[in-house]
Each structure stands twice: as structure tokens, then as C-alpha cells.
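BUG: 3D viewer hangs when loading the predicted structure for this chain

Environment: internal workstation, default settings.
Expected: structure renders.
Actual: progress bar stalls at 90%.

Input used:
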Amino acid sequence: MVEQAGDRAAHGKDPYRVVDRNGQILIHEHTEPIYELYYPYLPGMVVFGFSTGSKVEARLTDARIQFLIFTSLVVLFALSRLRPPTDARVRALQVLTVLPTAALPLATGGDDMPVVALMLLGLVALKRRRPLLAGLALGAASSLKFTAWPLALLALWAASDARCRRAAGRYALGVMVVMGPVVLPVALRNPSAFVDNVIRFPLGLAGVSSPAASALPGHILVAALPGIHRIYVAAVVVVGGAALVWRLRRRPPRNAAQVARLTGAVMLIAILVAPATRVGYLLYPINLFVWAWMLGQAEDPFGPPSSGADQLSSGSSHSSSETVVVPAEVVGDTVAPTSQ
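C-alpha cells produced before the viewer hung:
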């Protein structure tokens, strides 16, 4: 799917096509399922399919290989820029490579892996108080898939600079510098096709059912009561949005760890109640919760020493005080006796 869209974009064609209109299929293909004609990703994803039509060996231009290489490089770079305990960093890497939710996409070329890698890089930049870099990383992730948008939005509340000043403007500038040129021109070129592919089809509102049909609560409910599909989607968006606004007003996230934790909770709930979703999307909340734990243990490069350093310094001061010899108090007359 990514390779086909990349090939069309490389030849100057729109990666998005109007597949159905009012339930009538407009494009008839006998060699692939109808749902394969949709391209449910944002325009940035076509970068991984550009080289498909080149003369380079097919094994090197396969989008799945590019997903793997890109993810590995970005994750290793991001983790190298943090200073948490070694155990926390190793655990985060294991969750992103060994657990089935990540190992399977890595082995089969899952398109969620580059998004996850860029989300990690954005959170690390947020922790290091690099608002512009965080915006660039999360803007790149948000130009690939909508799944990065919750984190890109919530990071606004925690963006700060090296002097601990709010830097939401610089962060937003970084996001828009990437997303604007990548998403807007393509979306405005053919708005109808864009909405059909990236909004209606993933939500199950197009004329073709999405193959994302894991037996999670939202899908089970809509499958049992298909007549409430549109009302259910609208209700979930309104209620979920209102709950998030209430949470942000009462207790907004103030650092990268809190942003990761809140985003993980939001995405977990969204995955459970979505009418069309996959169990594999649990990759996002699982990693976000682990990153929140890791970021909470990492040192702040511009803040006071970590708790471990505090304990070490206090322990050393106690030990030094214990070894100091305190002179005993002399009782009585201290005048030297005179000879009789």
C-alpha cells in the first residue's frame, strides 16, 4: 500500500483516490481487495515508498526494510540522548523490540514503527528542553499517521526551554514547519479523496469496511448494532474531547513523563472504544507508559541532581560527620597546678 502510493507520488500523481461514492465503488480492480485501494496514511508516509520504482535492487527498496532501518536508527539515537539508569533504558529498548506488539511489526515491516520512533525522539527532546527539536520530531511523526497527533497536541503543555520558560510557540513552530508543507498541499489538492482515505475509511464510514476489525469493545458494539455507527462515532468524539479538556484544565501535564503517561491513557481508551481498530495499536500505549517510567527516572540536564545523586551526597555527608572527632568537654578547673 505504501509502495503503491509512493510510486504514484513519484510519478506526479495523487496518492489518494476516490474509491467509492455513496456506496458505489468507482474503481474496479480484480487483482486486489477493494480495501487495498485506500491509502489511510498521511502524505509523509509516501517517503518510504518513493524508491519502489527505481532501478535499485528490490530488497533494498522494500518499504518494510526502510521502516526497520529508520526505526532502529532513530530509537538508538533517542535513547543515547537520555541519562536514566541503565536498567530503565534497556527495558525501554526491550519493550520496543522484543515484546510481540513490537517484534511482529519490526519483522514484517509495520508502518507504525517509524511513528513510534519519532514519538520517542520527540519526548526525549521535550525532556532535554529542546522545544524546537521536539516540534520537528513530533511534526514528522504527525505527518505520517494520525496516531501521533495526541502526543503532538499534549506536548504543548510541557514544552519549555533551558531556562524553564514556557516554549509552546517554538514547539508549535517546529510542528508546523514539517506538517504544513507535507500535509496541507496534498490535502488541498483533492480534499474529497483525502477525507475518504484518511478519515472516513479508518473510522469505518466509507463504502468499504476496514480490515481493522479486532474484537475490542467499540468494534463489538458497532458490529452488534450497525445502525448506531455514525452516532456512536460522534458521541465518542464529543465525550472523549470533553473529558480530555476537563482533565487538562484541572491537571495539565508539566513534563515529558506526565505527557507520555497521559497520552498513553488517551490512546488506550481510544483503541478500546474505536469502531474499527487493531490489537496491534496497543503498541502505542504500552510504549508510552514505559517511556513515562523511563523519563521519570532520567536526569534533567538543566535541573537539580537526580534523587540518586542527592542520596549519595547526603549519605557521604552523614558518613563524614560520623568520622569527625569531637573534643571532649573538660570539666573543672583548667588552670595548671602550681608547685607547692
